[in-house]
Design brief:
By secondary structure, this protein is of the alpha+beta class. The protein has one domain. It contains two helices and eight strands. The protein has helices spanning 74-91, 93-103; strands spanning 4-8, 12-17, 20-26, 31-37, 46-47, 51-55, 58-63, 66-69.
């Protein structure tokens, strides 16, 4: 993996990729991947408006223009499975089970 500093949270993971902080949020029925954007004013961080959504074994790009299915999402899903096995499994069993279920 070419990620620096993978951080396991209660409801997902975060990692540094090419100078940006990427978050992977896990809910009951989907996974959302987005860049976390911070501003210099004190409004806190927000997620980018273009996100990857994984639901029912398929990946979609969600943007202000709508939600569109990706033709080949196998690399995204296999990379998340690898992170789940190598990092999440030993740090958060509940999150590991959720991710495993959503990625199967």
């Amino acid at each position: 993996m070419s990620f620096q500093r993978v951080e396991v949270r209660k409801d997902g993971i975060g990692f540094c990729y090419q100078g940006s902080w990427i978050v992977v949020n896990v809910s009951q029925d989907e996974i959302r991947i987005a860049e976390e954007i911070s501003y210099e004013v004190a409004i806190g961080s927000q997620l980018g408006k273009i996100q990857i959504v994984i639901k029912n074994g398929k990946a979609y790009v969600e943007s202000p223009l709508g939600r569109h299915e990706l033709a080949n999402s196998s690399e995204i899903i296999s990379t998340l499975k690898k992170i789940n096995e190598e990092v999440v499994k030993s740090k958060n069993a509940e999150l590991y089970e959720k991710l495993s279920k959503l990625l199967s």
